[in-house]
# Entry
Amino acid sequence: MPYNNLRRCFLTSLAFVFSHFLFAQDTIPATTNSDSTIIDTIVIRAIQDKIKIIPRGVNLYNPVISFKNTKPLLKPFKRFRVPSFWDNENELGFSLSEVAFVNWNAGGDNSISALGRLRFARNYKFRYVQWNNDLELKFGWNAQEGRKWRKTDDAIRLSSTFGYRQDTITNWYYSAKLNFNTQFADGFKYPNRTTPISRFMSPGYLFLGAGTSYITEAGKFNLYISPLTHKSTYVIDQVLANKGSFGVKKAILDAEGNVIQEGDNVFVELGFLINNKWETAVTKNVLMNHRISLYTDYLRSFGNIDVDWELNFKFTVNEYISATIGTHIIYDDDILFDEQKADDGTVIDPGEPRIQFKQTLGIGIAYSF
# Structure
């Protein structure tokens, strides 16, 4: 082999080995420093200038904590209660009036009058069902110098109405209603205080029927129409029952006036009843309460209407003091006045029904709880 060729081969081999070590990749790469940049947050606070020109109507307050405007807790916090569909109302009222004279030239007698009233209401309403219950108790008396006290007002009233409607939009209900009325103490035709003309459950009135009612959402207006209502008049006192008071069948007497057959204690009627209650605010502190009941009997005298109408105005002075003025009208064909009897006891004229009217005015204390 010539010398030049041998040298060329040697140089070529040496160049290959050198390039292999120079450009070959290692299986474990060498560590390198990461390329990162640290950036810090710089906050620049501007200097706040004071307001030199204050616009008219702008009030500037210093943020100072003060307890001068704090008030003590007068009423305890009400604990959370599960919502109920019952609405409860309790009212207690008492009014008193007094007149006294000392060397009064015009004359007059010292007197004092008082009237107490209790009312409890329990009303339930949920979707299609409404059930209203109301109990009212009233009693009033008057004492005048030189005579015994006399009764001025006396009433026990219980009312319960159950209604069902088909949807939650309409105000018309299918209703069933119960009413009961009577009194506490004996009633007299003064100055006669020996022979009572009325007593507890003499009379006592019970109405039970079914029909339809129109009741507003707030319950302030209630119109009840019943084409079928049972009315029972109770006269428990046998003396009044024998006289035939309040429409019951009187006793049968012999020629000497002795009782052969006792009078009935119950008088039953079946008729048509319309009942309406309405409560509305006339002005800010004046509340009107209206209640009327119209009843006619199918069996005996259809078209002859018994009326029981009460209208009251309540004037509220404050939370506890109020004044009330009201009227009460009653007409019942079964209640007769001015009965005339002969000397032997026989009834010459049984009397006639009349309009009964009562007007009340009182200022007193009213408390709701």
Summary: Helices lie at 3-23, 238-243. The chain has two helices and 16 strands.
